[in-house]
Structure formats: structure tokens, C-alpha cells
Amino acid sequence: MIVILGGGLAGLATAWHLARRLPEVPRVVLEKEPEAGGLCRSRRRAGFTFDFTGHYLHLRDPETIAFVEELLGDELVEIERVARIHSHGAMLPFPFQANLHGLPADVVARCVLDFVEASRGDEPPRDGRMPFGAWARAVFGDAIAEAFMLPYNRKLFCREPDEITAEWVAWAVPRPSLEQVVRGALGARNEGMGYNPRFRYPRGGGIGILPQRLAERVAGDLELGAEVVSIDARERRVVLADGRVIDYERLVSTLPLPYLLQRIRGLGGCPARGTSLAEMAGRLRWTRVVELGLGVAREHVADGAHWIYFPEPEYRFYRVGFPSNVCRAMAPDGCSSLSVEFAFGDRDELPADDELLDAAREGLERAGILEPGEEIIHVDRALLDPAYVLFDEARTPVVEAAMARLAEAGIESIGRFGAWTYSYMERALIDGREAADRLAHALAER
Ligand SMILES: Cc1cc2nc3c(=O)[nH]c(=O)nc-3n(C[C@H](O)[C@H](O)[C@H](O)COP(=O)(O)OP(=O)(O)OC[C@H]3O[C@@H](n4cnc5c(N)ncnc54)[C@H](O)[C@@H]3O)c2cc1C
After folding, report:
1. Is the pLDDT of residue 348 over 70?
2. pTM score, two decimals?
3. Ligand 1 closest atom vs CA 415
4. Ligand 1 site: residues with CB under 6 angstroms?
5. What are the two backbone dihedrals, phi and then psi, of residue 382, each rounded to the nearest 5 degrees?
6. Which of 54, 251, 297, 356 could form a disulfide with 321, with the two C-beta atoms 3.0–4.6 Å apart?
7. Is there a single domain that holds both residue 237 and residue 324?
8. What does the pLDDT average to over 345-364?
């Protein structure tokens, strides 16, 4: 029996690929929620559909493209990104560093001059082990770093930028050429930059359609409402909240790594190893996101933007998405939807919903997105916990040590939170495929 913990994209994809590679080996996906999909679900209420904040498909891997197209067929449409940054009262196209036009003249001048200065040096190493703040200053210059990179990431990670490393971001953040920065400062638009200028999305139903279709394909292997509360790696069994015990030959976990490390017994036991798994788990940090999904009774909001970044500290949210600007079917006729994202450290106390709603309304009115006193006709709240792994100095050594211990016990820990990393839906699907490949290989060699 192969037991798969968690029925998000990574767990579902593992089951799907295992059914093809090892059809004779029984398998089960244990998912604690009443519905599969994890972070990739959608909520449908009062005619509005909200993802757990906007979830857009950036697909590059040919096998994954074919897999997703087979699952969703012509339900998928391709969309050109409309992303903005709100700074100094202006709305700039994304990315900030290549679209400075519209900022006050002295800010533009400082950004360009500091970028020129930074471009004289060698580009810092992209292995990402530098502190994020120092990395951003070295790549973009002080003024761009201080106007966007540092305040935005301070809000998202709830940490000072030099307390996190650039590991999670070095691959994804485009460094424009000097020509692009100068042209962008003078008003020529540089919109297609970055890793996701176009994306795919279902024409209706939200991103939740994707795990739903996948769950239908592995329905016989899926147990919903099955919360795993402990794992005995020596006896190879998992215990569920309802008291059931399930024996396994191999285990694939997509649960958040700190949760797994705190609940697993019988791993290692070698005193020379020093740090216990629970201690390791205690050193991993993350941020949680509270999303307020709002509905308003008009069709046009935010000039058609799909999402807007808010780096400035006077706005309490870090990003606002507009699901109905991406896909009209996400809101009822005559209405629009907004997804307001607030980040908190894993140990911070969460404010009351009313306090966040007031902060959302005040900020949206100040930015000119809501009209003063405009009625909010729908409010929906979601908590994403964990949402973003914190790449501080502890993260990578702890993850490497934990993965080695788990591998010795024949346990795969995969997916965004199983691998304890910063990754996307495509990666979760690939993780499932690769885990199935490794299992098929290992079991064939028995
Ligand atoms: C704010 C935000 C925005 C994002 N936007 C995008 C985007 O635009 N595009 C993109 O490609 N990706 C995006 N992502 C990333 C994407 O959500 C993930 O990469 C992907 O959904 C991860 O899938 P997973 O299966 O690894 O994890 P999860 O979806 O977290 O699945 C893990 C599953 O395990 C279950 N589980 C947890 N504990 C237990 C337990 N004890 N017992 C049983 N089951 C349990 C959970 O309920 C869940 O279903 C975003 C992520 C965040 C946080």
C-alpha cells in the first residue's frame, strides 16, 4: 500500500501517475478537508467565485501542459497579464523597475541614477544565499529597492528584508537592461517582462476546476475528511483523527513539513545527529495570508487590472486582485469582485475581521479603487496557513537535514509545503509525477 498524505495538486498528481506506473499496488490519498484541491480550491458563494487568492497557471513543462490540457480541454483560456503597482499615488505597469514613468520626477531620477550605479558592478550571484535586502540593492540600486522591493517584501514576509535570503526570488525577478530602465522611465511601456506575462485560466468556475477534474480521475483512491494526526515511521503506519490506523509500504507526504516533523515518530533515533525533528520543525517560519473577498455592484473596477501590488506601508494589504477582471464569470452580472490580501507571521495574532475590513475599505478608497462610501455587497474571508515559506538562514539547512532523514525512512515529502519551498501549481503537478517515477523505480528493484 502506498499512502499519500494530502489531496492538493501534488497529492492528486502522485495518485494519478502511480495508477499508470504501478497499477497493481493499492494506494490511498488521505485529505482532511471535505473537498480535494488544497490551496488550489475555489469558493463559490452568492454568485461570486473566489480562489484562495488569484491562482493563475504558468505552464512551461511540455508534459504538464499536455496533462492540464487533457484534464481541462477547451475550458482553459489564455490571458495576457495586466498587473500594476501602486506607488506615490500612481499606478505603474509591472515590473516596477522597468516602468518608472508616472512617479515624481525626483524619484524617477534617483531610481535611474542608482540603477546605473548598480549596473556598473557584477550582477550578484543568483544562488540566492545573499540577504534579500542586500541582493535587491545590488541588483536594482538603492532607490528602486527602497521604493518597491524592500517595503513590498517586508509586508509580505513580515520581516526585515535582510533577515530573509534571496533564495526564493533570485530566479524569478527580472533585471532589466539599462536601456529598458531608461525607456520605462520616459514612458515606453515594458509590460511583457518577468516569468508570467501570459497565463491560463478556466473560463468559468475558478481554478478549483483543475483539482476537481483530477480528483474525479482518482476518485477511487481518495478519502476525504481523513485527517492524519501521527505517523510511525518504524512501524510504517499512519493514525487518523478518527482513530483508524493505516499501514503503508511507502509514504508520500504533501503536508506542511513542520507539521510532519512534529508528528512523526520512529525516525532516526541516532543521538549523534543532535537536533531532534521537533527542534528542526520549530526553526521553520512562514507567513499566513488572510484574504478578504469583496463584491461591489458595478462592472468596472481598477481599470481592468488583474492585480495591483501595494508596497507602501500606509496600505495594510500587500496586494489586491480583481478576479472578475480576469474572468467575467467570477462575479454576477453587474458586479465585480476584489481579493484583498493581508500577511501575518506564523506567530502573530490575527486581527478581527472587522478591523481588516475597515483597513481594506480605507485603503481601497484612498487608492481610488472604491468610491467614498461605496457599498460592499459581499464579504468572504479565507485563511491560508501556511501561505509563504520564510527563507531565513535556518530554512535550507533544516530542510536538507529533514529530507535526508525522511528519505532514509522511505518517505517522500513533496509539494509547496512538503518541500517547504516557494513554488507554483505546475511544480506541484511535476512533484507528483516525479515522486511516482521514483516509487515505481524503487519498488521495481525490490
Ligand atoms: C497567496 C498564494 C498565491 C498563489 N498563486 C499562485 C498562482 O497564481 N499560480 C500558481 O501556479 N501557484 C500559485 N500559488 C501556489 C499554489 O497554491 C501551490 O503551489 C499549490 O497549490 C500547492 O499544492 P500542494 O498540493 O503542494 O499543497 P496544498 O494545496 O497545500 O495541499 C496540501 C493538502 O494537504 C491537506 N492536509 C494538510 N494537513 C493534513 C492532515 N493533517 N491530514 C490530511 N490532509 C492534510 C490540505 O488540506 C491540502 O489539501 C499560490 C500560493 C499562495 C499561497
Report:
1. yes
2. 0.95
3. 26
4. 5-11, 30-33, 38-40, 53-58, 227-228, 254-255, 289, 384, 387, 415-417, 423-426, 428
5. -135, 145
6. 54
7. no
8. 97
